[in-house]
Design goal:
CATH class of the largest domain: Mainly Alpha
Strand order of the largest sheet: 2-1-3-4-5
Largest sheet: 5 strands, parallel
CATH superfamily of the largest domain: PhyR, sigma-like (SL) domain
Number of helices: 12
Number of domains: 2
Mean pLDDT: 82
CATH topology of the largest domain: Butyryl-CoA Dehydrogenase, subunit A, domain 3
CATH architecture of the largest domain: Up-down Bundle
Distance between the termini: 54 Å
Oligomer: single chain
Low-confidence stretches: 69-79, 84-92
Length: 264
């Protein structure tokens, strides 16, 4: 099997990581593209002593660490979300966010994450705890849930409240979701894809975003179907079945780039 064939199944999830790390589909995909270009240009430098997925993320980390500082200097004008993120990043170690996303969202073990960020396992665990504490302290929002499975909705609601956020309500259909959003505007939406009346959570979100901007996290059992490289695509995705830590990381990261949650 060629290297390209080995890496192909992991690309959708690398896109997810890149987008969560940057808060932008365009920027995240840019780093993924640069990663692939680096591998094609020098395949002999690709790590062969580890699992291909680890090698892929390791190459991405090298690109990110070498390139994002130049982007910060050369970017010129930036949008509001990036400006807010940079203000928050000034208060937090970049490694802590990477450790959090690699373990909680991408599912790497602390040992694998340690390899990816050049740290030891104990340090990774410390970084994850630091990231959760800092992001949760800096971000608070009013959250709406679009989910037709009562048990899952209750679980998500519990996580939302544990993080200190307020719930505006739970909708189970597209029409309910739009009506609820118009009645009580949320600061964050968590949306399932398939809803109770066979309507689409994606369509519900499109209707809401046509009225006002709000960060959205999609919940799906098939994230690769939404991570094809086409535009527009969701920036934040949670895979079913999910861990509570994954939901916490996604919520914190989505709000991390949202200007409405700037601390006083």
């Amino acid at each position: 099997m060629s290297l390209g064939q080995q890496l192909a199944p992991h690309l959708p999830f690398l896109r997810r990581y890149g987008r969560a790390l940057t808060g932008s589909q365009m920027q995240g995909d840019r780093y993924v593209r640069a990663t692939l270009e680096a591998i094609v240009a020098a395949p002999e430098e690709f790590p062969r002593d580890v699992d291909p997925r680890l090698g892929l993320y390791r190459t991405f980390q090298a690109i990110w660490n070498s390139a994002h500082i130049e982007d910060d200097v050369d970017a010129g004008g930036v949008d509001d979300s990036e400006a807010i993120a940079r203000a928050r990043l000034a208060r937090m170690s970049p490694l802590s966010r990477q450790a959090l996303l690699l373990t909680a969202m991408e599912g790497f073990t602390p040992e694998d994450a340690a390899y990816l960020i050049d740290a030891d396992t104990q340090r990774v665990e410390e970084l994850v705890n630091e990231a959760l504490a800092e992001i949760e302290k800096q971000t608070r929002a009013r959250v709406m849930i679009i989910e037709d499975e009562p048990i899952i909705a209750m679980d998500i609601e519990s996580i939302v409240r544990d993080l200190g956020h307020e719930l505006t309500g739970v909708a189970v259909t597209r029409d309910e979701a739009v009506a609820l959003a118009m009645e009580d505007r949320p600061g964050l939406v968590l949306a399932d894809i398939q809803l109770a009346d066979d309507s689409s959570g994606i369509d519900a979100v499109k209707d809401i975003l046509a009225e006002f901007n709000v960060p959205v996290i999609f919940i799906t059992a098939f994230p690769e179907r939404l991570l094809t490289g086409e535009r527009p695509e969701p920036t934040f995705l949670i895979t079913k079945p999910f861990q509570r830590s994954t939901v916490k990381a996604a919520i914190s990261q989505a709000l991390f780039f949202d200007q409405s949650t700037v601390p006083a």
